[in-house]
Amino acid sequence: MLQSWGFDPWFAAHAAEMAMEGCGFARVCAVDRGAYRILGEGGEVPAELAGRLAYHTDGPADLPCVGDWVTAQWHSDGTAAIIHRVFPRRTVLRRKTAGDGCGVQMIAANIDTAFIVQSCHYDFNPGRLERYLVMLADGGVEPVVVLTKKDLVTPDDLANLLAVVAAVTPARVIALSSVTGAGLNVLRQALAPGRTYCLLGSSGVGKTTLLNQLAGGQAGAEAPSGHAHATRADRATRAVSATGEGTHTTTRRQLTMLDGGALVVDTPGMREVGTVAAADGVDAGFADIALLAGECRYADCRHEHEAGCAVRAAVDRGELSATHYRNYLKLRKEAAFSEMSQLDRRRKDKAFGKMVKSVKKHKGY
């Protein structure tokens, strides 16, 4: 069963170091306000954190999130569990905590491919798309761009949108309509059993509708044996408004197994996509600019005012979008600020830890 939920040789290689007596392995399938649900050999059960894990981690980002593999101990005749350890993560999806803080929020872990979902109608936003691409590049996740609601635009408008995406990223693009069904089979064919996917995008772009249709579209396929009790895609949706805009539906992150065996994480819509990537992560998200940067006169060129900058030269020649270039610089500055903020926070945490130890030693604890 664990293999069908993504426990492949990469995670199996960590099994010996993560094993504990009286425990087994499971995957986190849902997290909602600190409440966990995990999937193990006995099926899906609620779980809570062991005290050591809850109170002795470096920060919230080290706590379990959807997609994590964990070491758990079952109790109450296998109807509940305690999470003791979190496996190393192969890939991560994370963002800066909403607002002005410098914290990190985990979205999901161990995702193979993320579908960046934008609507052809109202939600299409190249700047937001670039932020998602940086997030995925930073976390080692493969991107695929999905344009929904193609039935609401003309063929010429769709062609223009595809050209804009192509100018931003070489990633695969799938345009579809949940109303007419056009393009849905293309997306279904991109899903493989045992692989983990994630739907990312703003509220109302049709992520939940899409997930329900993918599940329904594979109804003729047999689910892996023994999984009739597993988390399934059957989420509530709301009709679009009179203008064609969608409305917020999903309220928590949840891992679902489709009938064909593919695993999909649906996520609530994100108003902010603050980056916590390092400069290298930003460069990876802007592959076209990173390629041009190799032609700059100076290896440490910041692509702002330096002489011999191949990136600015491409902008001047009209070969690189000025907006794309400005967004790149903006995200580089955000990454630098995030890196400095995290370093400063680690220094403060270290200083606070030393002070606590000093007080304890002084009082003879």
UniProtKB/TrEMBL annotation:
Transmembrane region(s): none
Cofactor(s) in the UniProt record: Zn(2+)
Residues given in the record as GTP binding sites: 148-151, 201-209
EC number(s) reported in the record: 3.6.1.-
Recorded coiled-coil stretches: none
Main location group: cytoplasm
UniProt keyword terms in alphabetical order: Cytoplasm, GTP-binding, Hydrolase, Metal-binding, Nucleotide-binding, Ribosome biogenesis, RNA-binding, rRNA-binding, Zinc
Every CP-type G domain range: 102-273
Broad enzyme group: hydrolase
Cofactor detail note: Binds 1 zinc ion per subunit.
InterPro entries in the record: G_CP_dom, P-loop_NTPase, Ribosome_biogen_GTPase_RsgA, RsgA_GTPase_dom
EngC GTPase domain span: 109-271
UniProt-annotated location(s): Cytoplasm
UniProt: Zn(2+) binding residues: 296, 301, 303, 309
Keyword Glycoprotein (UniProt): no
Region (Disordered): 221-248
Domain of life: Bacteria
Oligomer status and interactors: Monomer. Associates with 30S ribosomal subunit, binds 16S rRNA.
Function: One of several proteins that assist in the late maturation steps of the functional core of the 30S ribosomal subunit. Helps release RbfA from mature subunits. May play a role in the assembly of ribosomal proteins into the subunit. Circularly permuted GTPase that catalyzes slow GTP hydrolysis, GTPase activity is stimulated by the 30S ribosomal subunit.
PANTHER family per UniProt: SMALL RIBOSOMAL SUBUNIT BIOGENESIS GTPASE RSGA
Family indicated by similarity: Belongs to the TRAFAC class YlqF/YawG GTPase family. RsgA subfamily.
Record-linked NCBIfam families: ribosome small subunit-dependent GTPase A (TIGR00157)
UniProt-recorded name of the protein: Small ribosomal subunit biogenesis GTPase RsgA
Upper taxonomic lineage: Bacteria, Pseudomonadati, Thermodesulfobacteriota, Desulfovibrionia, Desulfovibrionales
Gene responsible for this protein: rsgA
